[in-house]
């Protein structure tokens, strides 16, 4: 193999590790001192003008969340969960990940499932997907992954070579690829798919007890999906099919709903759990941590103006309120910076003052010392002080932490994630494959082979098949045979 050039930062310095972000010890949070991570994410956020760099194809709706479980306060001091029957207004945005504005919303792609709760303590954004896992466990690889899903620099189309070269060389993607290429990769409607917070989050109750939590929105309409052939036909006829379907349902009074359920893990159990509980490529077994019902989400109103509300809606997984916070999940840690930074670039520093983004549940709105900036509207704070501390009765800190700290140890720098007993990149992918019916397996294999058979980079098909084989020997064998069959089939013009 010819000598390869060294990967560098924009300033030309060599990059020591492009696979792992720097953390505070092996289990600690990601560090701001990782200037390469910040540079990479900040540059990625600015690659598209003016649409979202990801999740550009979106549909929004308003609704409310109502608590049905009176015992949620056992685990969190979040006020929106304080008593059964309590309602909190919300805005939700469904989206595809890879397509640009105008792309068909029935593409085979994960669906964004972003919910903005207008709580009395401020906006809480739960920015997840319709999948419980993701392709990556470390956000430092996210720009690379999305580049493989976007148009190629030369051909200006999504290239199977790029998609499968990345998947084959990133075994951690095997679980999510199995999900994406299966039946649930194309929902028949936004109403007929589940949603997930996907990451592990922290809950803290009034006594200071800490729990790890995963959020599951289970559709009350039942799961319905499209085959690849159905989606190709529908998307060709109507690229906004899922958008239209949701609008028509809500406008006709057929309000969709989801039951929110959670998995709760006492903080002390995380270190010994058989899977790394902060690895986004993994799920927690529901046998180990059963689903607990929390409440009901109902959508009952569509936006009056798409641009003003859905297009300008800005979500960040870093928008927390007292009682909920982040975990050491490395993908989540990167998103805490990347999402807010992307919105500041896309919409401007004052995007939080746009009506859809204002904290509607807080009396008088936000209270802080932010001033000036592009597109500032309102009185810009008038003649009030724009600094703190002050002696003129301006807003002051609450002295109440939103969430608990995480104990860390080890060396600050690049650390490999701690491996738990059953951690590998294939065990859960294999389990998911074996849960499928024979018909589901056939469609999964056909969907994978359709793209993989087009790959021309030497060794990529073999590595991809090896990954599927490590998940399940039958899985790998059938993918290989399906690819070979397509490659040797006569080309009928």
Task: Give the arrangement of secondary structure elements.
Elements: E1 22-24, H1 35-45, E2 58-67, E3 87-96, E4 111-119, E5 122-129, H2 142-149, H3 160-169, H4 174-181, E6 195-196, E7 201-204, E8 210-219, H5 228-237, H6 241-251, E9 257-266, E10 292-301, H7 306-311, E11 324-325, H8 330-346, E12 412-414, H9 427-435, H10 438-452, H11 460-471, H12 473-488
Antiparallel strand pairs: 1-12, 2-3, 2-10, 3-4, 4-5, 6-8, 7-8, 7-11, 8-9, 9-10
Characterize the structure shown.
This protein has 493 residues and is an alpha+beta fold. It has 2 domains: 22-357, Catalase HpII,  Chain A, domain 1, CATH 2.40.180; 426-493, no CATH class. Helices cover 27% and strands 16% of the residues. It is built from 12 helices and 12 strands. Strands 2, 3, 4, 5, 6, 7, 8, 9, 10 and 11 form a 10-stranded antiparallel β-sheet that branches. A two-stranded antiparallel ribbon has the order 1-12. β4 and β5 form a beta hairpin. α10 (438-452) crosses α12 (473-488). The radius of gyration is 23 Å and the shape is globular. The two termini are 38 Å apart. The mean pLDDT is 94.
